[in-house]
Amino acid sequence: MFVSKTIQTNAELLRFEGKPSWSMAFPQAMQHVLAMLIGNITPPMLIGGICNLSAEETIMLTQAAMIIGCITTLLQLYPVLGFGMRLPNVMGVAFAYMPILTLIGQQYGIAAIFGSQLVAGLCSIFIGMFIGKIRRFFPPIVSGTVVLCIGLSLYKTAINYIGGGSAATAAGTFGSATNWLLAIVTLLVTLACNFFGKKLVKVSGMLIGILAGYALALVLGGGLVNFTDFQEASFFSLVTPFYFGLEFHVDAIVMMILMYVVQAVQTIGDVSSTTMGGFGRQCTDAELGGAIKGQGICGMIGACIGGLPTDPYSQNVGLICTTKVVSRRVFTMVGVIMLLAGICPKFSAIMATIPQSVLGGATITVFSAITMSGIELLNEQPMTYRNKMIVGIALAIGVGIESNTTILQFLPQLAQNILSSSMMVAFLVVFLLNILVPASEEDKQKEED
Q1: Cα angle at 86 between 273 and 98, to 5 degrees?
Q2: Ramachandran angles phi, psi of 290, nearest 5°
Q3: What does the pLDDT look like over 57-68, one tens digit per residue?
Q4: How far lies 137's CA from each of 134, 311, 427, 438, in Å?
């Protein structure tokens, strides 16, 4: 009788409307939380440093990241008026936005990030409404080129944090042996878990790596970990709407809208992987549109409460494909756990004590994974002469301009701001060339084969 009940509960995990026991659902939910946790809290911590926010404000950003992750995850599970896809997934703050958030934050500050996010989120809703019609304009050579550029542009952030970040620069310890040691230990432990770990250890490799680097920092002492803000943080607090304000700059808005377009294409891949891996079918246009519209409305909500832009987490998509667990109850629990972490400043404060060199050692694995995802997307289309030239030219111009933006000095300031990002330039070039350059008969034959 007990064996039969266990088998039945396991079967319930594999159905979207299944109702597995709480004891069976909770470990599955925690597995997803552990897989996404560090990826969700790291971007707000990085942006806090880039925008020179206080420790208290960075904690608020981290709180908001957990809360907006919860809201987006639950909306995708329980759609409202067509917003949401009614599919399981775990949503969180996206690393892919980091290059654009960094540019906007350095030039205008945190308020401009949320102002541009508010407008771009609204535009994303319309993208979701017409995704079936515009999807053909974003084949793998377009989306792959952009994702590849995003990954490459993030390496500067990783190296900066490996050296110790802005705090180490101010203290004159940037690139010190201690910072390198913390980063390398974190990286090696993360890689060991990813390469040799099984099940939970494998999907939690980044978390385990950070814990190892954090433990080493505690052992080394020397003020590497400061608990002052943690001790002062409260156990319960709600985020303050519009605390960071909203500023609207045309160039920042244009960059953010283009990034939302790019991320919509990436979402198509994640949703498709979820339906194929978890349900054994292709996703529908309605599901894709609902997912993108859900991200758009949550982007607008996030702008109001301090939550950065979100997207589906690929590592959690991978977990769904591996375990086949798609029960809505499991992912509802994930959302609730994220919410509880978001309303507890103590949680965010302890996360903020992680040394930046440790974060650098861990996040370089994520950035390299983004780069390789771009290459994988490119390989989904035959690398014909036409496609190779389009991708190569887009990368050459995008990366080349970002390495020396003075070449843009004769353009209007608005254009300079937009085109100073390799991702923006590469996106515009590859998008236009893919439309304008016709495919030869040889190209068409290779694509058919």
Answers
A1: 60
A2: -65, -40
A3: 888 998 999 999
A4: 6, 21, 12, 14
